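From the pipeline queue, job 12 of 40. The input is one protein chain; the requested action is below.

Action: predict structure.
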Amino acid sequence: MIKTYHLLINTKGKNEIIDITKDIKEFVSDSKMINGNVLVFVQGSTGALSTIEYEPGLKKDFPKFMEKIIPEKDYYFHNETWGDGNGHSHLKATLIGPSLTIPFEQERLLLGTWQQIIFIEFDNKPHKRDIIVQVTGE
C-alpha cells in the first residue's frame, strides 16, 4: 500500500534549514502502516533534503561549509541565462539532492539518536514549498 501526503512550508530563502522530522513522523502514524519506508521528495531545483543533528552550531556550520565549496559570489553561467542570481542555489541543491528514503519499523522511523530530517532552502528568495511524502508498507 502507498499513501501520499503533501507538506507545505513557507521558506525565507538563503540557506534556511527547517526540521521536518515531526511532520514525517505524523504522516507515518496517520498512514496506519506498521513497517515500511517513507519517501520524502521536494519539488523544485533549489531546495534539498538531508539529515543532520539539528542543533544551533550545525545550523551555522552547514551553510558556512556550503558557501566554501559553492560560493554565492562566484560566476555562474546560469545567472546569464535567467538573470536571477541563483546559480549557486541550483548547484548546492543538486549536490545534496531532492529526496530521502527512511525505513520505519513498528511505526517508528529508524533514525539515529541525534538524526533529524531537514529541508534546506538554498534559493536566494522565499518560496512556498511542496514536499511530497509517500509512505509505503504494511
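Job complete. The beta strands are 2-10, 16-19, 36-42, 47-52, 99-105, 108-109, 116-121, 128-137.
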